[in-house]
Amino acid sequence: MLELVQQGAPDPMFTLKKIADADNDPRKVDLGVGVYRNEDGRYQELEVVRRAKKILDGLDLGHDYASTTGDEEFLRLGAAVLFGENCEALISGRVSSVQTISGTGANSLGASLIASTVPSTKVYIGLPTWGNHVPIFQHAGLEVVTYDYLDSTRHAVDFENLLDNVREAPLGSVFVLQGCCHNPTGVDLSPQQWGELAQELSTYNQVAFIDIAYQGLGDGLAEDATGLRTLADAGLEMLVCQSFSKNFALYGERCGALHVVSQKSWLAEIVKDQLRSIIRKTYSSSPAYGSRLVKIVLSDQSLRTLWLKKNRQNLLSHIDAHHIPGDWSYLVSERGLFSCLQLTPAQCRTLVDHHHVHLPENGRINIAGLSEENIERAAKALKSVVCLGSKVRL
Ligand SMILES: Cc1ncc(COP(=O)(O)O)c(C=O)c1O
């Protein structure tokens, strides 16, 4: 039998990672996989995860099986992060949440739910997209219809094209959309477009399938969830895939959830039971470690604040407090992981050589490398190199 097995479809990311891992050249810069790195190009653990690990260690919870559908408190907290505490669908019990093997597992489980319920469902996916979307739905046996997501001449969403597809698709089709920080284009729908889309999906009775793998890494937790919250408030049927890989830097722990929003609470109970049944047949239960850490953070107000802390704003406040000359306001108008401090190469070298503040000569800093513990030292060091000759002591 095994001589009949064919090679799997090639995966460019798998090959890229293999080549990058095998490259031991000190000049290596790995820009391939979507993982945040520190200045040495190594894994960057979040401060808040480090603290949660210590707490978890003390709890000594053992390694029993998790329940098939997952930890209910983790799921409740995760759903609130997505939909907001006051979401009507959550309050009225219309959301069925189950733990999954991270975002990929949530997509796959959602696809299985659709395939086992209405196998003839057409799944609409805008291209380009995350390389796994089309394979996941096809693997579940569903027909995938693709359309152009991006109007590359304007570098904007081809929104009219998306709406045309919503209007022309057979009723009850599924539209896969990314909640925020679109991979790979970085181009998201605007809040107005989400509103318009919600109306059209509702009019044409289509189902939204939202994949949100980067919540909190765009404009903020609530802002990044604007789209899916707009759809939920419009009373649509929808599936939402939640990943904690990126926003908690828990990539290898495979921590995530699938949340299915039904139009009636009694339907939500049946949906949850069907999900239980599919999970049992496929992976039985999800890994517990990552979800235990996320639960500790989300249920503790001070850890939660630390998770949400705005390093950019924090650095600017320290700079203001030390009256460091110059206009540093760009720190809070920029987004993402990096910022280029307006320093000369000589100033950067002084920071490294005399203050142990490591940054390249172009002044690019990893904002995530700042913590409560080191931000004050970094600000003082910055002051001493900017105010040359000043006698700031570290
Ligand atoms: C859009 C999107 N969805 C889902 C995922 C799945 O990630 P994970 O399985 O680690 O949660 C990724 C990962 O890169 C992604 O970019």
UniProtKB/TrEMBL annotation:
Key words of the record: Aminotransferase, Pyridoxal phosphate, Transferase
Claim: Mitochondrion is one of the keywords in the record: no
SUPFAM superfamilies: PLP-dependent transferases
Molecular function (Gene Ontology), one example: pyridoxal phosphate binding
InterPro entries, sorted: Aminotransferase_I/II_large, Asp_trans, PyrdxlP-dep_Trfase, PyrdxlP-dep_Trfase_major, PyrdxlP-dep_Trfase_small
One example of a Gene Ontology biological process annotation: amino acid metabolic process
Domain of life: Eukaryota
Cofactor dependence: pyridoxal 5'-phosphate
Keyword field contains Transferase: yes
Residue intervals of the Aminotransferase class I/classII large domain: 27-382
Subunit structure: Homodimer.
Similarity-based family: Belongs to the class-I pyridoxal-phosphate-dependent aminotransferase family.
Protein name: PLP-dependent transferase
Organism: Aaosphaeria arxii CBS 175.79
Taxon lineage: Eukaryota, Fungi, Dikarya, Ascomycota, Pezizomycotina
